[in-house]
Amino acid sequence: MKNNDMNIVWEPSEELIATCSLTRFIESLHARSVVSCQSYEELYRWSVESPLVFWDELARYVGVFGEGDFSPAYTSDASLPTPLSREWFPNFRLNFAQNMLQGNDDDVVIISWSESAIRRSLSRKVVREEVFSLAAHLKGCGVTPTSRVFAYMPHIPEATTCMLATATLGGVWSSCGTDYKVDGIILRMEQIQPSFFVAVRRYRWRGQWIDVSSVVEQIVNRIESITDVVIVDYCDDESALRELSFSREVGVHLYQDIARTKCATTWEFEQFSFMHPLYVMFSSGTTGKPKAIVHTAGGTLLEHKKELLLHGDVRTGDRVFYQTSTSWMMWNWVVSALACDACVVMYDGDPMLDNGGILWKLAEEVSVTHFGTSAAYLGVLEKKKVYPNTIGAFESLRALFSTGSTLYSSQFDFIASTIKPLWIQSISGGTDIIGCFGLGCPLKPVIRGEVQAKSLGYDVQVFDTEGARIIDREGELVCASPAPSMPVGFLNDADGALYRKAYFEDFKGVWRHGDFLIETKEGGLVFLGRSDATLKPAGVRVATADIYSGLSGIAEIKESLAVGYTPQGESAERIVLFVVLEKECAFDVTLEQRICETLKQRNSFYVPSVVVVAPEIPKTSNGKVSELTVKRILRGDDLGNRSALANPECLLFFEGEGRRMVRERLG
After folding, report:
1. Helix, strand, or coil (residue 8)
2. In sequence order, what DSSP letters do the residues of 401-446 get, joined into one string?
């Protein structure tokens, strides 16, 4: 793969290069005679070759508040569960919430919009007071540093303040959005066994208030570890809310009553070890029971500050938005902007409100500086011909983050032409590290279709199936170095067996993440999707992202899903393509031929053996297409955990007519 000027869609200005935090970090290292780096590549190489020094220097530079000494950055411990396990910053203690709440009282730190036209701006003083009131109440109800709190909440300020109150006391937080069904929530809560449950009785979606009182009741009745429930009511007609009824006695507390009980404006924060647990995150669970991944307070804080400050160039007073739900790690990620002295901008509701314009109205009106979204959302805008630059000029907007799925090359052009030319940060990582392996870089140009840079401190490489490093060829994403945001472990996995199997089974001593990608000679990364979803027609590996990218220009196709299928009695895999059509569009021989010809022009191996029209594509709660679910259906395998999907009802088509049509055509 060769880059040239035609593939550059953005270049950093001299002013950005001179003033960004990454440059200042490099200058500070040089001034203190730590290391002299003339480029990002040199800095990255040093960060993975000298990890003890790098992580120590990083913690000092980004400003982790606490007590003790940053040295040593880590110590090895043979008793820990994996080859890359370390005891990080053993001589340093901190409180995560304290780091998030530092700063001037009057600064606006949360701006929130919702479908119901609720517009809120919260100062740091107001946020602190609510957090301290909640923390005092939770402490009085028995929340301790060993307690677990689970939330069923939309992306609203109360989710953040409840999390911070839990972290203030050293409790462990886990959450999911209101997009989850009961069985999916229960599957996660059964592993956590929380004592406290935070929930809403209603949420807003597509112009309607959706009553979920029965969901809350079912959860409390089925999870017997719950002793107390905090109810957050934020609808515009609270008189219509019905009383909750539980099958056993639990304490029920109204958030609004707690928040109105003002306590002291200061708090004596207890300090905890760097490795103290903060979050339990869950894998998607599309291949089985979701993994309960435990992340530490120190590891999360340090990684997020590194990514936001150095890679994303988030500055004091910036306004950072991410389109997310509390189910997705991007909620945890964007909330950490508070620790960077920035303002977190939230939206609760349907992002396609106002014909797809609502998020751009928000960005324009509140002067968002960093706008975060997904390739799937941008793809919908492109299909619907929604052009944000007709809504606003976005003079404050400096960067656009995109993750969740692969950002196609053509989408870089769509962003530049219909929003404005800006720094496109295609980023990629995962719940597993509550962060990113591939990130933006303010010192480098943006190349169409590529992630700019590897994450500092992560020895990211691409391996072939034999475990050899490869360049300019498709392979597996691996990480050969320890990092503080790698999980401390899984719940209910005392000997680390599940942890080792998840990441270290394929390559000895090296983390395999499960992504399929290419590392270019210039150091860029081209992500191609999940490696376990790649196709192998005629034994040739094909990334589904390449097929989806090829189909993005066909107006009749709303979305698509490609899987490999081996007909009975055959050894060669065939590509099966499912497509969802735009309204009023019909599928006929001409459209099928155009689909195949379009893909053939890219690569003859991309051409499907059969094209099937589907009413809907199965997706996880964060919008990722679930190829593996459909592949298992076609093979006749047991699906196991359907609740991992946001729309499990759509599987009826694939289990019935979809599978029948494929087998009739291919055998």
Report:
1. strand
2. EE-SS---HHHHHHHHHHT-S-EEEE-EEEGGGTEEEEE--TTSPE
Residue 363 in tokens: 């960005």
Give this prediction's pTM. Answer: 0.87
Among 82-91, 401-410, 618-627, name the one with the lowest average pLDDT: 618-627
Residue 573: CB atoms within 10 Å: 19
In three-state secondary structure terms, 212 is coil
Q: Can you read off the two tokens belonging to residue 438?
A: 């591939």
Vertex 602: Cα angle to 601 and 604 (nearest 5): 75
Length of the chain (residues): 667
CA distances from 216 to 176, 186, 354 (A): 13, 11, 30
Question: What pLDDT does residue 140 have?
Answer: 93
* Best CA proximity match to 65, nearest among 302, 318, 321, 275: 302
- Please name every residue paired with 612 in a beta bridge, in sequence order, or none if there are none: 578
Q: Which two tokens stand for residue 508?
A: 């000895």
Taking the C-alpha atoms of residue 535 and residue 599, their distance in angstroms, rounded to an integer, is: 14
Q: Are 627 and 556 in contact (CB under 8 A)?
A: no
Tokens at 419, concatenated: 């929003």
Residue 406 tokens, joined: 């692969």
> Within 10 A of 124 (CB to CB), how many other CB atoms are there?
21
**Cβ 589 vs Cβ 597: under 8 Å:** no
What residues form DSSP beta bridges with 319?
Answer: 343
CA distance 531 to 515: 5
Q: What are phi and psi of 85, to 5 degrees?
A: -65, 140
| AA identity, residue 490 | F
Both structure tokens of 84 = 């890359």
Confirm if 312 and 399 have CB atoms less than 8 A apart: yes
pLDDT digits (tens, 9 = 90+) for 378-419: 988 998 899 999 999 999 999 999 998 778 888 999 999 999
Q: Which two tokens stand for residue 157?
A: 């300020």
